[in-house]
Design a protein that fits this description.
mainly beta, Neuraminidase, 5-stranded antiparallel beta sheet, 26 strands, 43% strand, globular
Length: 357
């Protein structure tokens, strides 16, 4: 049975005014260490949240903030329904239960409050085929009153959506047709236009092609001047980072690399509204556990700090963090590291940032 309404007010600590009357916040933390080993603390971190962190949903993954910051949309589970949490009421509603579908993996807001959803129109024969080559983009009206409309655009992994315009970016994976050829990812951009409730993509163009790593768009800088992206090393060369934090200029197509701690996993996630910092999934081994770090988008001397330490409990993960439009809150997923696929979450948390964050 699909859940149509779930109360989200199950937070375990007060974010603003806890029992003692003092505000509690998440701070930026210390510089990222050279290693991030798993700890041995006993307990379940979803019951023992640190100051400034609140569990707002006991299920869900891949949260995103609405343009006005008053709501958080997320996926209930991989290849499931999309949901929306109201910050004022603490209630959660199912956005897609009214429409037949094959399940969704991601949801995004457009500037006008309408939605972009990612999921298969027709699943492939295997999970790998579905995820790598069968995920399509769907548009849904802001009231979620009609079924999602397929855009007939295939995307590999995530997409980037501008906060300021109707510009989006996505990546297309091309598998080798014969032995010896590399896997390539091609980043594309386009403008989403709707007329009479009918969506279409215009001004579609290629931005970047990489065959040395798998490139995935993440976030636009303010003014849509550039785009952040993680690049996943697939060469097998262990002297190269597992992941790299990159950006690409939309006009010049110049690529900038932002160094992170050598030997650690570092996947760029939600950017701050000022475009000066970004969140990063950081880990010793992402398959065993993962935390959240903050990276200054300075290619020469980037400040890189650790924000959370959920791996003190062992095999646990924070993931897919995003920043609200005011730069005061972070939403992220939480869950066990013992899950079948990357990106799987088992709850949504809200983090309130310290004033000097």
């Amino acid at each position: 049975m699909k859940r149509t309404l779930v109360t989200g007010m199950i937070g375990l600590i007060a974010l603003c005014h806890p029992a003692g009357g003092r505000a509690q916040y998440v701070t930026r933390g210390e510089p990222v260490p050279s290693t991030m080993p798993l700890g041995t603390d006993i307990g379940n971190p979803t019951y023992q949240m640190p100051p400034g962190v609140k569990l707002i949903s006991a299920f869900g993954e891949r949260p995103v903030f609405s343009p006005d910051g008053r709501k958080i949309a997320f996926i209930g589970k991989s290849y499931g329904d999309a949901f929306e949490y109201d910050m004022a009421s603490g209630q959660t509603r199912n956005l897609t239960t009214h429409a037949p579908h094959e399940g969704f993996l991601r949801i995004h807001y457009l500037k006008d409050g309408s939605y972009l959803l990612l999921g298969p129109h027709l699943p492939g024969k295997t999970r790998e085929e579905t995820r790598n080559s069968r995920i399509e983009l769907f548009w849904m009206d802001a009231k979620a009153s009609r079924p999602p409309v397929p855009l007939q655009i295939t995307a590999w992994e995530g997409i980037a959506v501008s906060r300021e315009t109707n510009l989006i970016a996505w990546s297309v994976m091309t598998l080798p047709s014969k032995a010896g050829e590399p896997v390539t990812t091609r980043l594309k951009t386009g403008h989403l236009v709707t007329s009479g409730g009918v969506p279409r993509l215009e001004k579609v163009s290629d931005l970047l092609t990489r065959s040395d790593c798998l490139a995935e768009p993440q976030d636009f800088f303010p003014g849509d001047r550039a785009l952040t992206l993680p690049c996943y090393n697939i060469t097998g060369d262990r002297t190269k980072p597992v992941t790299e934090v990159l950006s690409v200029d939309l006009k010049t197509k110049a690529v900038t690399r932002y160094p992170t701690t050598s030997g650690l996993y570092a996947e760029v996630e939600g950017i701050f509204p000022d475009g000066k910092r970004t969140l990063v999934e950081c880990a010793q081994d992402r398959s065993e556990g993962m935390d959240l770090c903050v990276l200054d988008l300075d290619a020469v001397r980037p400040r890189y700090t650790r924000m959370t330490n959920i791996v003190r409990y062992g095999r646990w993960k924070y993931g897919n963090p995003v920043v609200d439009p005011a730069g005061k809150l972070i939403a992220a997923q939480v869950g066990s590291a013992d899950v079948p696929d990357a990106g799987v979450g088992q709850g949504i948390v809200l983090m309130r940032l310290a004033p000097n964050f």
